[in-house]
Amino acid sequence: MSWDSFIWFAAVSVILWAVGSILAWTGNKRTAAMSIYGLGIAVFFAFILAMWISLERPPLRTMGETRLWYSFFLAVAGMIVYSRWKYKWILSFSTIMALVFIIVNLMKPEIHSKAIMPALQSPWFAPHVIVYMFSYGVLGAATLMALYILIFKKGQETSDDMATADNLVATGMAFLTFGMLFGALWAQEAWGTYWGWDPKETWAAITWMAYLLYIHFRIARPKDHQTAMWILLLAFICLQICWWGINYLPSAHATSVHVY
Amino acid sequence: MSLFSKPWKLSSGFIFGGVLVLVGFLLQILVGPVRWSLLASPVNLVLLVLFIAFLFLAYAMKGKVTFFAWLGSSAAAVPSIACTLLMTMIMGLTAQIPERGWLGNMVTFWPFVLCYVWLTAVVGLVAVNHICRLSSSWKEIPAVLNHLGLFITLVCATLGSADKQDLEMMLKEGGSQTVASREDGTTVQTGLSVRLNDFTMETYPSGMPKRFASDVVVTSKSGKEIPGVIEVNKPMEVDGWKMYQYGYDEEAGTESTVSILQLVKDPWLPFVYAGIFMMLAGAFLMMIVGFKREETK
């Protein structure tokens, strides 16, 4: 399997996701919507698995490969939210977000060989990146929730809306913690330093603390929804800097071992 | 009452943070950057005992002293996280090159360090609060693990950094070595004798490195000879020294007959690990409880 076949798998997935999303809007066909949407996820995952097998390593090394997982986990997160909280719009949104990353991959395919540098040849590699991508997916859904509350609800949000944002952050934050600490344990095995303030690590800490700020702000000022949602947006910006923005930061370029 | 005092408490936290940053600036000017090496054992142990004693004292007196009641509350958590976040952002936006002055070396910059100390005090006090409530409710377990785990990790990583030995040992094929050098160039007797039998470097057809490995025999303090292969991501441990594949003669490339090992001894590491595993368990529980809380609503 190679990137050449990606467009076919992606097209089938996106069509299935679109059909599932439309069914979700009708309101009374939830099982059908979820089955078709889930099938789209399965097709997408089949491509990831096939890449994994043909590359003889998990497809996690390049930005292109991590975008693959991100699209996948966005769809998964969208489906989890839909199954739990029944928002009609969430499947459409996660489909559009996943589509954006698919298009980026089609326009700018970062095709790479089987080569993988020694530092990345570790059992920690796959769990480190996969839990991070899952967390990014869930926190992406939390960001959508924040935009939905800020733009469409404008102070009319229910406690259920807020609980959705809180629960998405709790899940995303748990996985963010796994990702960061797996990274620390891995770094200890690879370099003898669990934390070295490498720019990627610094931004991982910033992202983690930004979501920590959201959680504690919700406890300290439960009624100030607006500020909480703005913190959530700020946290997502930090997350983006940590994930790919760092490659464009002059401060990081000089000193990071994480810039590929 | 609490409705009126809450906003005041939150904003007073930001004022406290501002004062802390100012104090940091003053210290930076008066005594210069933080010298972490001064914390080497036993200074760090004394500080640890004093810090924990302070936390229990603060807990005991929170009914009498408003400041201590505030320090262990979410009204202190929010500004302490925000201030620490801001300091870390400054670090993330400035290249960390010590020659570039204060902001190029944030880990020794007093305002940065004081914000982290504040955050650690808050997280420690919150941990004590949750621990003391543990007997009445098992629901405190995730919060205890999260806060105590972070507290242990932060404290042991920071105080322990002065006791950590991080050395480089250069080996030549066929030769033995007993000394290693610090970052500043001074040398240390490691108590080990390391003989390099062979250094191997494999590359992909593109020339990209695929594998580095040092085939060594390590003689321990007690005279025991231990053969082993050290690779990237596969360190070897003898007498408390962790030995990592670190470098080679880059000009010679695959023909290199020189291997550089990194030798690390970090007596505080087991405690840092304990903290990390508590946080992992806490994060896992937070995820489950977060969902459960939703279901019971």
Explain how this protein is built.
The complex is a heterodimer of chains A (260) and B (297). Chain A has two domains: 116 residues; 144 residues, no CATH class. The radius of gyration of chain A is 19 Å and the shape is globular. With 260 residues, chain A is mainly alpha-helical. Chain A is 75% helix and 0% strand. Chain A has nine helices and no strands. Chain A starts with 5 loop residues before the first helix and ends in a 7-residue tail after the last helix. In chain A, helix 3 runs antiparallel to helix 4, helix 3 crosses helix 5 and helix 7 runs antiparallel to helix 8. With 297 residues, chain B is an alpha+beta fold. Chain B has two domains: 182 residues, no CATH class; 100 residues, Tick-borne Encephalitis virus Glycoprotein, domain 1 (Sandwich), CATH 2.60.98.10. In chain B, 49% of the residues lie in helices and 23% in strands. Chain B has a four-stranded antiparallel beta sheet, with no helix packed on it. A four-stranded antiparallel beta sheet of chain B has the order 2-3-4-5, with no helix packed on it. In chain B, a hairpin with a 5-residue loop joins strand 2 and strand 3. In chain B, helix 2 crosses helix 5, helix 4 packs antiparallel against helix 5 and helix 6 packs antiparallel against helix 7. The longest helix of chain B has 30 residues. The N terminus and C terminus of chain B are likely disordered.
Q: What are its keywords?
A:
heterodimer; A: 260 residues; mainly alpha; 2 domains; 9 helices; 0% strand; B: 297 residues; alpha+beta; Tick-borne Encephalitis virus Glycoprotein, domain 1; 4-stranded antiparallel sheet; 7 helices; 8 strands; 23% strand; disordered N terminus
